[in-house]
Amino acid sequence: MSETMTSGEYIQHHLDHLTVDLNPHFGTSGFWSFNLDTLFVSLVIGLSLAALLRYIAVKMTPGVPGKLQNAVEIVIGFVQGTVHESYHGKSQLIAPLALVVFLWIFWMNAMDLLPVDLLPHLLGLLGIHHFKNVPTADPNATFAMSISVFLLIIFYNVTVKGWALGKEILTKPFGPYLFFLNVPFRIIEEVAKPFTLALRLFGNMFAGELIFILIALLPWWLQWLPGGIWAIFHILIISIQAFIFMMLTIVYLSMAHETH
User: Fold this and answer.
1) Which of 94, 101, 112, 137 is deepest in the core (most CB within 10 A)?
2) Gap between the Cα atoms of 133 and 230, Å rounded
3) DSSP 144
4) Distance CA 169, CA 180 (A)
């Protein structure tokens, strides 16, 4: 913690994004403002994962696998098993999508395990004074992912069910004579899906990040004990949150393939 900052200023400093506004007339919180730290970190992690998986696929051996190949095969087997149990459609997109969602969100969450002041201090030497290194603690990132899943839900609902979708909306769950209740219930059900995906992930990661910031306010010789305990517990949280987002994505897309 900087000696020139109060506790409140220190917390606010770590909660501010590196932001650029394409329309300065609306200020830094306008609609066309972009959190560059969220975009940069999520893009670097995504490209790094793609390069790593590509490297492993090229170097894959049919005999005894190396440690890295073995670890990736375990993750792929776990994701494939989860998809097989929860998804009953025929799309070839779901398993790769679930794998990308799980790995990408897990490693974005894992950025929370870096020391709170590490990246801000290093970037501060370059004149960058605000930088949040956990993309999933930014609702813009979590909503971007959840809306992408929501668009896939709509796509599969329309392409798989066709005209049966209209009948389903009008007649479920209360029967055809209460269609005026069925339609708003269906709208609420569908709109709730991206919100449940985005807000659950954001809320858990933002809370975890805030706890690390509060621990950083303690004297340096006292930080290691609560920080270490919370970091160990937080490994479980980041794993569970990646799994929940992946699992709900599979379930929602499975629902889009099936009639009620």
Assistant:
1) 137
2) 18
3) H
4) 10
- Say what the alpha-carbon torsion angle 223, 226, 229, 232 is, to the nearest 10 degrees: -60
- List, as one string, the DSSP characters of 155-188: HHHHHHHTTHHHHHHHHTTT-GGGHHHHHHHHHH
- pLDDT category of residue 152 using cuts at 50, 70 and 90: very high
Specify whether the CB–CB gap between 109 and 85 falls below 8 A. Answer: no
Which 3 state secondary structure label does DSSP give 7? helix
**pLDDT tens per residue across span 95-118:** 999 999 999 999 999 999 999 989
Q: Look up residue 121 and give its two tokens.
A: 């201090």
Full-model pTM: 0.90
Whether the bond into 135 is cis, omega within 30 of 0? no
DSSP string of 188-203? Answer: HHHHHHHHHHHHHHHH
Boundaries of every domain in the chain: 7-257
**Please, are residues 113 and 55 in contact by the beta-carbon 8 Å criterion?**
no
| 154 vs 246: CA distance, rounded Å | 18
